[in-house]
Amino acid sequence: MADAKREIERKYESDDSGLPDLTGVAGVANVLDKGTAELDATYHDTSDLRLASARVTLRHRTGGSDAGWHLKLPVAPGIRDEIHAPLSDTLPDELAALARSRVREGRLIPVIRLRTTREIQHLVDADGKLLAELSVDRVRAERLFGGTGTAQWTEIEVELAEGGDPAFLDKVEKRLGKAGVRPSKSASKLARALSETKGGKPRPKKKAAGKAGTAGRPAVTAGEPAMTAGEPAETAGEPAETAGEPAETAGEPAETAGEPVTAGDHVMAYARAQRDAIVELDPAVRLDTEEGVHDMRVATRRLRSTFRTFGKVLDRTVTDPIADELKWLAGELGVGRDQEVLAERLLAALADLPDTLVTGPVHDRMRSWADEGERGSRGRLLGVLDSERYLALLDTLDAFAADPPLLKAAAGDPEKVLAKAVHKDFAKVADLIETGMAQPPGHDRDLGLHEARKKAKRTRYAAEAAQPALGKPAKTLLKSMKSLQTLLGEHQDSVMARETLRELSAVAHAAGESAFTYGLLYGREEQRAAAAEAGLPEQWQAVKTGAPL
Q: Which residues pair with 57 in a beta bridge?
């Protein structure tokens, strides 16, 4: 079973490897010598270093207190999520799955071996509580694939204790700086090893083929190369001599470097960011983090909206099929998410009722309904993320980002081209809002306002994409669309809540239970919808008055 933790650390280097007295750091009462550990780590990656290019590391390590397999995923500079699995001869399935969105059809092989002699010290407070672990690492790196180079260096690591205040690391860094210890130029040991033992630059990732095949299901033997170093990578199709230090930042292709100039530049910068988000959020969805599913679903919606809004910039004969697949993915992501949000709403409303108004096992029935949906949707979603269809979509998105289907307008003035597209979306929202408000209360109004909500969301994403080019006008529109979307979302949530309450009430009635509480909650949801409808004319008038485009 894999364990996950948030790792917050900083790396340093020093000409003489000397360390100052750190008891001078505020809060540090003592520095405890914890001895020396011998670590032997083999880092695995594809032949074209897809993990390293995304600042992801996967290693098999013996020695020390946490021997085993480690997958480290970037969060922010100096912050990574580390997933640890016990020692085994082959890569655990859980870690293989978490790397799948990046590895896909690639084969994982050993690329670097690092042997480290680590001198460990613990910085503790007056109560003996650990504040941070400091280590002096003497590293010996050996290239296992793409060359035969070796390198040696000494570095210093300071890792914050679990639950510690990151500001403490600032204090330690200030003290180290006064002693001539400086931040490392390399983000990780692997990055430095690849740089100092490199056998050439990696070739750009090949354009995606139609299907992913057995993507991301590598069988890796610990510390044992899947092929002889320097021989062609049979399954990857990349020659060994192309392996080297990743040239790009994770998710930021070299071809997009520099500030956007044309309308196409701006649209593609936004589109690539959504592509990157989908890939990078894959592990979060698999780990079932709090907002992982929601955030990935939003990224798919943003990208679909970009294709539709900027149809004069991107050829829709190419993007429409991609949008269809994104719609499929968003739908799969939403199966459990929508029910989860609805369950939270209904259970919170139930908790607000006095006990005297709750008749029958209403809470147990709602909880059972919510849990049943969550169990079924979780297994289904993991299956989707392992499917050839999903992995083929990721390949398609990479191919789109590498060779976008730009039309003539893509070369145009971004202020003119993007403003026209955003204005067109806003006009559609206006028509739907006014048509919806003109309907009598009931199904037709509910349906009309739901459509208006979807278009408001699309306009919001359009303004978001155009903001770097249009500045304040787009920012103002973005905020107003977000407020409108929130109000319309409250109305739609009430519609869905009432449908569910009717269903639960019917089941309870059939079981001989009282339906009183369900009816009471239904009435309260009607009031919430009526309040949203009553506030809509004023909200819409404010949007129209302030609309700058």
A: 72
DSSP-assigned letters across all residues of 89-149: SB--HHHHHHTHHHHTT---EEEEEEEEEEEEEEEE-TT--EEEEEEEEEEEEEE-SS---
- Looking at residue 235, its pLDDT comes to 37
Residues 336 and 250: their CA atoms lie apart, in Å, by 30
Whether residue 222 contacts residue 90, with contact meaning beta carbons closer than 8 Å, is answered with yes
Least Cα distance to 110 among 237, 246, 250, 227 occurs for 227
Query: Among residues 490, 472, 432, which one has the least CA distance to residue 456?
Result: 432
Q: Give SS3 for 203.
A: coil
> Three-state secondary structure along 372-434?
HHHHHHHHHHHHHHCCHHHHHHHHHHHHHHHCCCECHHHHCCHHHHHHHHHHHHHHHHHHHHH
**CB of 275 closer than 8 Å to CB of 287:** no
| SS3 readout for 22-49 | HHHCCCCCEEEEEEEEEEEEEEEECCCC
Contact 111, 145 (CB under 8 A): yes
Residue 360 region by backbone torsions, left for phi larger than 0, else alpha for psi between -120 and 50, else beta: left
Q: Which residues pair with 72 in a beta bridge?
A: 57, 82
Q: Which amino acid is at 87?
A: L
Rounded to 5 degrees, what angle do the CA atoms 4, 6, 217 make? 45
Residues 215, 391: contact at Cβ < 8 Å? Answer: yes
- Alpha-carbon span 308 to 301, nearest angstrom: 11
Taking Cα atoms as reference points, which of 323, 322, 326 lies closest to residue 396? 322
Residue type, 128: G
CB-count exposure of residue 162 (10 Å: 0-12, 13-18, 19+): exposed
Rounded to whole angstroms, the maximal C-alpha distance in the chain is 80
Q: Give the tens place of pLDDT for each residue, 58-74.
A: 999 999 989 999 999 99
Task: Give the amino acid at 273.
Answer: A
Residue bearing tokens 């079973």: 1
Residue position matching structure tokens 């919001």: 460
Ranges of the chain with pLDDT below 70: 1, 17-18, 199-257, 547-549
What is each CA distance from 28 to 10, 12, 18, 78, 163, in whole angstroms?
18, 19, 19, 22, 16
Encoding tokens for residue 342? 């609805």
Could you give the CA distance from residue 146 to residue 165 in angstroms, rounded to a whole number?
A: 41
pTM of structure: 0.84
Nearest to 144 by CA among 193, 118, 110, 167: 110
Structural tokens at position 175 = 């003290």
Q: What is the pLDDT of residues 371-424, one digit of tens each?
A: 877 777 888 899 999 999 999 999 999 999 999 999 999 999 999 999 999 999
> Secondary structure of the chain: what % helix, strand, coil (to 5)?
55, 20, 30
Q: How far apart are CA 272 and CA 266, in angstroms?
A: 10
**Tell me: the pLDDT tens digits for 271-297?**
999 999 999 999 999 998 888 999 999
